[in-house]
Design a protein that fits this description.
Blueprint lengths: L4 E4 L3 H10 L4 E3 L5 H6 L7 E4 L8 E4 L2 E5 L4 H6 L1 H6 L1 H8 L4 H6 L2 H7 L6 H7 L3 E4 L3 E3 H4 E3 L2 E2 L7 E7 L3 E8 L6 E9 L5 E6 L7 E2 L1 H7 L26 H17 L3
Length: about 260
Amino acid sequence: MYEFGYHRVGSVEEAAKLLAADPEAKLIAGGQTLIPVLKQRLNRPSTVIDLSGAKLAGIKVDGNTVTIGAMTPHGAVASSQEVRRVIPALAELALVIGDEQVRHRGTIGGSLANNDPAADYPAAALALNATIRTQRREIKADDFFLGMFTTALEPDEIITAVTFPAPEKAAYEKFRNPASRYAMVGVFVAKLRDGSVRVVVTGAGQNGVFRHTAMEQALASNLSPDAIANVTTPASEMNADIHGSAEYRAHLVGVMAKRALAKLR
């Protein structure tokens, strides 16, 4: 690692002031992304700003909405009986993130802010039409994810919480990298309470998480695996690496989508 300063802040306001004063500073939430990058010397921040003291953890259920504080670890979401009652698919998604150690350190806010193309939470946020809250505004998930590792956040803007409306039914399936357990392909299917259907793919697209509009159209009148039997995913828009070709990932999108549809609840 390179040398850097360190601040553990006690509030979001304090963190925002530090960010505004130093464009080379970086936030750290659970550290599951930043620490490996620092170890590999792929990032050289002047200062690391630790949000662990900013009191941003917690889960609140209000009617048909679930609000999760940005510093809430994945393990807390996975084990929350309230989340399991209102949006079981969200708890199940959190349960398959990384391994137990990662789930006890990684946070929902860190995952969304980083927008890793293989992350799980962006798929849930986009499929469930979530709202990402910061210290200054609310951003709909449709407007938040702008591309691989890119979001609508301003340089000194900090996620404070995420609000998920409960769907009528939803499910998530992913094909895990056997070593890292990141999503080589993950598909989140949700039927929202307004009757619309969303199908969101993570881990596969060249531009990160995306809505599969062809599948959404096919499922609008028939919410079953058979409805997407003839829907294809263009391989030209998929990632390719040592773990899988673009064609393989395009095939997996269909497989994971059918599995998610088969377990909708």
